[in-house]
Amino acid sequence: MKRFEIHVTGKEGIHDPAGENSLHALANLGYVGVTGVRIGKFIQLTAEDGVTCEQVEEMCQRLLANPVIEDFSVTAREV
Amino acid sequence: MRFGVVQFPGSNCDQDVVRALRYLGYRADFLWHRETSVEGFDAIVLPGGFSYGDYLRCGAISRFSPIMESVIAEAGHGLPVLGICNGFQVLCEAGLLPGALVRNKGLKFICKSVPLRVEKSVCQWLDLEPGTVVDIPVAHNEGSYYADDTTLAELEAEGRVVVRYCRPDGTVVPGETAPNGSLHDIAGICNEAGNVFGLMPHPERVTDGVNGSRVGSAFFTAVAKRVAATA
């Protein structure tokens, strides 16, 4: 069995209101020095051994991420 | 004139659209998302709602519904397709329209009537003169239009921005009049041919007069006239 860990984040320059509001909330709690919060998604796929990183990247291109607004990275792990 | 209104699991404006179209005197039938053909329909509407629970991204999963293969193919042959709200998000995910709809600036779900200015465009759906201002309700959480600078420049140059958020007098103040943070204050765009049109506001809610206005009719009548003229 394999595990693929996928991080999906908004592209540079795309508004991330959830991140911006969380940044304000952290400042309100008194945490100083935090200069940015970006909120994305973490997707974990479990797959049979034959599934390749290239196939998972294709899955990201087609469905799991929207390349118009999001970047993604795929890491394979043996389990 | 026969409209097909697609029902995805989670669509919730499908009944409103059918009601509005029937009020205007057109034949309108539901099209279940598992159907595989749009044959026999003169135009297709993808209604608002929360198809597939908006899981993953709005429209991301519905875009692969069986019916969408036929919608995408026939849109390429000129079939008029209108996407309202969630339908607009589906059209962007499907690649029939460029760009994407992202989370509203300010994180609020926005539900109110807003003024829209009709732009000079190649859109086949709109029966209104450029410069006209119409009040149409919006109801969305992910309605902020985003596209890269090249795409935005193309949309502007090719007359594909169809309606823009504006002040009641029709003035557009960049970065200010869009309640959701849409780039270029865009509320609706169309494809190059003008047959595929997507917008966030809901014209079907102000078509039969129940909500005090019939101004939304003009978003459906032009296509019907066009179909009648070519029949």
What this model shows, in words?
Chain A contains two helices and three strands; from the N terminus they run βαβαβ. By secondary structure, chain A is α+β, with helices and mostly antiparallel strands. Chain A has a single domain, classed as Phosphoribosylformylglycinamidine synthase subunit PurS (Mth169, Chain: A, 2-Layer Sandwich), CATH 3.30.1280.10. Chain A has a three-stranded antiparallel sheet with strand order 2-1-3, with helices on one face. The N and C termini of chain A lie close together (6 Å). Chain B has 231 residues and is of the alpha/beta class. Helix content of chain B is 21%, strand content 25%. Chain B contains five helices and eleven strands; from the N terminus they run βαββαβαββββαβββα. A nine-stranded mixed sheet of chain B has the order 2-1-3-4-11-10-9-6-7, with helices on both faces. Chain B has a two-stranded antiparallel sheet with strand order 5-8. In chain B, strand 1 (2-7), helix 1 and strand 2 form a beta-alpha-beta unit. The longest helix of chain B is centred in the N-terminal third of the chain and has 11 residues, at 66-76. The radius of gyration of chain B is 16 Å and the shape is globular. The mean pLDDT of chain B is 96. The A-B interface holds A 10, 14-18, 21, 63-64, 66, 68-69 and B 56-57, 60-61, 64, 92-93, 98-100, 102-107, 144, 146-148, 181.
Brief digest:
By secondary structure, chain A is α+β, with helices and mostly antiparallel strands. Chain A contains 2 helices and 3 strands; from the N terminus they run E-H-E-H-E. The N and C termini of chain A lie close together (6 Å).
Q: Key features?
A:
A: 79 residues; alpha+beta; Mth169, Chain: A; three-stranded antiparallel sheet; 30% helix; elongated; B: 231 residues; alpha/beta; Rossmann fold; nine-stranded mixed sheet; 5 helices
